[in-house]
Amino acid sequence: MKRRYFFPIHICVFFCCIFSSCSKMLDDPYPDMSIGENQIRPADIPLLVNGAYSKIQGISNQTYPLFDIYADDVISIQGGTSTMFNPQSYEACNVNPADGFGNGSYYNSSYTAIGNANFIINFIRSRDLSSLNKELGEALAIRAFCYYRLVQAYSGVVITLGPNEDPAELKRPKNSEEEVYARIFTDLTDAEKLLPSFTTANAMSKEALQLLRARIHLNRGERTEAKKYAELVIGSSATALSADFTSNFRYGNSGNKEMLFRLIEGPAVYGYDRAGMFPLFSPGLPYRRPTGATGNGQTWLNPDLVNAYEPGDTRAVMLKEQFASSAGKVVTFLMKFSTDTVQQSNAFVVYPMIRLSEAYLISAEVDARDGVVNVARYNELRQKRNLPGKSTADFTDANDFLNEIEWERRREFVGEGLRWQDMKRFGKAVSWLTSKGQPDTKTLLPFPNSELVRNPKLEQNEGYNL
After folding, report:
1. How far apart are CA 365 and CA 425, in angstroms?
2. Is 416 exposed, middle or buried (0-12, 13-18, 19+ CB in 10 A)?
3. pTM higher than 0.90, yes or no?
4. What pLDDT does residue 11 have?
């Protein structure tokens, strides 16, 4: 099935009447009609940017927990058909290339958002619309973010920059991993000059972009750059750690300056209790929301992680112990995405993407990897989580401190999609794959079979068969 992009030929926008009366629908796209590029006005671009944001997550919420279930913090025994999102197979690090809901949606949603961003970037640049510099910066940041999602999952991928380029229809081999990273850094550099400082988590800002860049540099072993960008974000007057940890996951989080970028889904008019990560992560019966909704009760947390939370840690409020009949024992469920505990009556789903706390732990990790036990940034975060500070004497050496940083990241970001990249960076991924009976080639995901059929020149990642 051909992916639907914005202009000029294919557009994911529903127009119920003439453009002048319904351009407000541009930020709520549907794959219905095609319109010409000459019908777009500069005033419509902000709405197209909103549409690009909406495409990052894709039609399937199953893309969000993909790497959490692949890694060691989350245990899932949920099943499913072989061609649909199957958490149990992800937990075994045995992704099916035919899976079109988890792996496939992750791949396709990234390229759909890239296609939308490409149109916006080309439209603004070809017309030299300096009045739309903010929107240009957002589109560049969206494109960089999506290529980052792709390269971390698949390594090299096909780069598309044209306004209507479907990567499979280009019928060419994938670009190298380094070429993709070069594209990412070019877009991030250009966007940083255009984006304003943080005011809302619903749009890319200068600080969100800088923290994304710090994350990418850290994963690539580029420690000087990682520290530089992390400290820029920490030093910004627009950002601040929140004393209320749960506010990071509420849709209505007025005053929160820690959640720097998130994706939201909604309002869901019907059945929002079953939307997003609530059914996946929440416990089953006898747990019920006031509305009567309950989770699947088949996905819980690694007990080693649960036991690593210290008494008084405010993050522990997001954990719930309950007997699970599917496990035959009491297990601990993650409630970050429960509409019961944090979303209240709002029919919105929140997907955290970039939080300020990561900058503090990146800064501390860089110091540890440089052989320095510098507890300053680490303690600043602990203080906001209602925990006492530690001294350098509490750690035998920098490696001991580095181990503590890894655990702090696990406690802070469980369920937010960062653990698999952390495992690769901390040298834990290959041994984890071995424990699952999988080869080290499965540090990467497979390209979806449907994409290989559409582009015969796209070579499958090693360890997977068509």
Report:
1. 11
2. buried
3. yes
4. 38
